[in-house]
Queue: 3 jobs
Job 1
Amino acid sequence: MAIKVKIINQSTNALPEYKTVGSSGMDVRAFTSETVFIKPLERSLIKTGLFLEMNTGIECQVRPRSGLALKQGLTVLNTPGTIDADYRGEVGVVLVNLSNETVCIENGDRIAQLVFAKIECIDWVEVNNTDNTERGAGGFGSTGIK
């Protein structure tokens, strides 16, 4: 059974939707009155006209669209962006252009995808040391490439 999320759509675009039965994310569209030009290595906040209300215990993650990343060098800067359950403002997407060409965003362009995930809350348990593992403190490539 699908989790219910309330949404206000103040844009002129359709609601985000799953494009295929197996899709994890729903494409979200830009809501802008004029074309936005994002120059190489420039970032821009693109509004969507969407406002969400979710139950505590889930979050909405804003993730890049793989086709935009590959074909235009456009990605979500703070990947994944998090929309917390208690946030009630407009959903915005921070895009960055990693290509060598200016990219234009127009109203209705699919700019990112929304993925919903369950969130676990934790309680800290302060200790003096943690258990040893085979990996130990090795990180940042310590397990090799192949």
Note: The longest strand covers residues 43-53.
Job 2
Amino acid sequence: MRIGIFGRGRLAQAVSTAAVAAGHEVAWMLGRGACAPLGRVDVAVDCSLPAAVTEHLDWALAAETPFVVGVTDIDARALAERAQGRIGLLIAPNFSLSVALMARLAAVLARYASVTPGFDPYVMEKHHAKKVDAPSGTAKLLANRMLSQLSNKHGTATPGAAALTAEELCVSSVRAGSGQHSWHVVGIDSADEAIELRHEARSLLPCGRGAVMAAAFLSVKRGLFTMDDVARSALEGVLGALE
């Protein structure tokens, strides 16, 4: 698989490293202000900046190239409307398969809190001081998963569940220090007990590997997808333990 990468930052480097390790070819990596890429690729992965994503999507549409977006703080709905299903488009605030697992477990915690009186749900995250968006895209993903999974696919409340609102779900962010380390926590807390799950990212390589998985998944598809679609089959055997 030939992969093109928009961006030359830490995430872009992690995607490149993971792609080469998996036996794929990185055709190009383009930094800010670079000319339009030359040569066909099977998939393009965007690790650039929010302001550049729309322009990169327009290139992907013109080149009929599946497009994976790993940029946070963007309008995903507007991008999907722009693409209109003409190419494969996958948007993910975090490519880590472990984070996809955590999102599923966060939903389990939220459902348990909804049927067990006295629990307060929360999401916490910490990143380096220079990270612009807060809460992070991953924190929003986890929070939305806790909220949305309290209703079934028909939009009715889980049996015995009290409605949980966004105002009742506390989300907090810390921006301090430097380096690649970051963490996300989801939990439920009561006067008598608490349950907490924590994911710590010690490098961006897990995200790089996940992005390559997403690229391979998207290379033969059209329409809108998320990392949840990529992770579904990979985590099926793991989550069977919850039954």
Note: The two ends are 37 Å apart (CA to CA).
Job 3
Amino acid sequence: MEKFKYKEANGCAGICCHGCGKMDAPLNTFDWLADVPGNYEDTDIVEVQFKNTRKGYYKNSNAIPLKKGDIVTVEATPGHDIGTVTLTGRLVLLQLKKTRLTPESEFKRIYRKAKPVDMEKFAEAKAREHDTMIRSRQIAKDLNLDMKIGDVEYQGDGQKAIFYYIADNRVDFRQLIKVLADVFKIKVEMKQIGARQEAGRIGGIGPCGRELCCATFTTNFVSVSTAAARFQDISLNPQKLAGQCAKLKCCLNYEVDAYVEASKGLPSRDIELETKDGIYYFFKADILKRELTYSTDKHIAANLVTITAKRAQAIIEMNKRGERPESLSSTGHDDKHSFDLLEQENINRFDNVGRNKKRRKNNRGNDKGKRQERKNNDKGGIKEA
């Protein structure tokens, strides 16, 4: 029973300690079945990850004992490639379903664990990637091709390179492939990617202060529309809605379902509320708080009144019966007044900290002098008496 006890590794306690690893790439998967008995005996298919957003599945036909984090040499066309094992065992079968593969599909083989010689060639190939990218951009410009080469990935043995490019329209790069193959003496593969994928490969920090989602965990890019911003009552400002890829931010889709669900019970924004003191038009809504703000003018903010969705629905029912309440709020006053903190406090109050301290110190000195003066006057009065 000793082997079934909880273990600790990498600072965490739990059964799946072997599945823990550095989650530093968007394709990493937490192996929560790592310590289950017989996990590695279910399949000989292994998930291997390469640079950035590329990974593949290979067959461990030689029964090499592999674990997460091992660097292996795998079959490639032509030659061989070098990658890192990111997943083994039973969870690989579940991952295959995402790629529409089955265990009976044909997989390339894992040759061996990487040797020092393999790692030296791999390091030499990686060192050439940046210079190759810069030079290939100049070659594409000389050929008048409307495309941008965003990244280059060399194969582990240096015999092949993948050129990732971005293009708005269809590009005939047959001549470019011939020139690149002749200049760099390698086999060339061109792969088109989108703006979001390029941002994920480059990385960066978003306006939220965190690393870009596309560079950390997002792998499937779902289309984002302005309807997501409208449902959340976000201002349709292109500069604020666009990310570093110049497309709409992926995070706009994160909470849109919650807002759609929360807005189902709210009355329609086209309905006008009639009271004895006038007609009120919809101005804005706080969907999560379920509060609506109405204005007496249809186009500008005038005499704003904020009420709950329940109160608005009750007034709508009264208007349908031909009745009109005295006012929007049930008590005759606004349910909630919106205000700006900057209207009540001076924003420069934080800049006068030193000056305020000095002023308080002077005031304490003046008060002390006044008290001493009063004491002296009292003593003088006693002596005269």
Note: The two ends are 99 Å apart (CA to CA).
